[in-house]
């Protein structure tokens, strides 16, 4: 295992998400050794996860092997390992197999996961959408629900199987609700004989007063109306107080549903605990203006794991462009330091806008003075996402899948993967492509 030595400066980056990749890319041609560690062997484009859950895209269209991405970078070593802690005294990262990796500079970009507001027991009934495994599990549950409804003779059971509840009215909840409604009412409309997929109920539940709270109120209203036109029932100001295998309790009333998806809370990775650093309520490390950890100029935390204050006192939002900008900033800062230059320029976040898609030809965009909705916003959303995908092959593949889906409503990833033949609606395996 690599150790710090008296040779080149060694930067260890933990997490090959949006932030981590941009740190490593920032060291292209630099006179440093870089080790990137991730518990998975791939980089994941999370913004399109809901399309895997909704059977529009396959897993390999939105993920890339990390080792492949850095195959031509001789100064970069890729390690697949779960980081379990950091010994800040001896400057070692602690891995799951008991080994350690020494660093001169450490960048933690380990992202976030879902939070159940103290109700972790809800997770098996209401999986969140954060990983490819989550997306494949949710897709398997959605498709299996239709299959089970087709062979059920019990009307109440059928109704519960054809009811899909999404908890959380942020972009992920809105996108999931729209895609499940379209899957049921369009893609699957003519494929069953005993049930009518168009009679499916999709219920989007939000505890707050409106959908997409980071968008202006007019776009939130538009989103609600657009979803309702797609047949989604939107429940606002409706807190969920229980989740079980039978459904949810919402606003005090039971709602029977066999498929529930969690798109509500977010909790940062445990980096603050590893460092014994101060964190906010979501577990994000309270970083200095240069993204370093107080008392540790050699450790940086970026992306969804960092609470980085802006001049107005708010924190930088947990979105991909913010993580990427922080990654680029930190790589530049480290390079300048190594050249002996003083760096007193703090990280400045440039907000490029908020985008969310609702359904086919329906999206909302808020770019400050430019606010768009409907088909034009949807095309911009599509082009932006294709632009940010890595590599020509994936761009073409995703574009083709979308054209197919848009023109004939076909979804190519409508596969239910089971680990064993007798498995019921349990976690799905990932499909090969
Ligand atoms: C469903 C969904 C939809 C989204 N849609 C959008 C969108 O439309 N637009 C947008 O801008 N943002 C969107 N986001 C948010 C965006 O994806 C995140 O803000 C962004 O990924 C944060 O980047 P990051 O580098 O901090 O973390 P991530 O991209 O999450 O990367 C973290 C990496 O760290 C690794 N890791 C974590 N813990 C460990 C460990 N202990 N050891 C080793 N490796 C570890 C993980 O495997 C992962 O590869 C979405 C997020 C989700 C979940």
Automatic annotation (TrEMBL):
- Lineage top rank: taxon: Bacteria
One Pfam family of this chain: NDH2_C
Q: Does the keyword Oxidoreductase apply?
A: yes
The reaction(s) catalysed by this protein are: a quinone + NADH + H(+) = a quinol + NAD(+)
Q: Does the keyword Oxidoreductase apply?
A: yes
- Record's keyword terms, sorted: FAD, Flavoprotein, NAD, Oxidoreductase, Transit peptide
Similarity comment:
Belongs to the NADH dehydrogenase family.
PANTHER family named in the record: EXTERNAL NADH-UBIQUINONE OXIDOREDUCTASE 1, MITOCHONDRIAL-RELATED (PTHR43706:SF47), NADH DEHYDROGENASE (PTHR43706)
Q: Which protein, by its recorded name, is this?
A: NADH:ubiquinone reductase (non-electrogenic)
Q: Which organism is it from?
A: Pseudomonas shahriarae
Taxonomic lineage: Bacteria, Pseudomonadati, Pseudomonadota, Gammaproteobacteria, Pseudomonadales
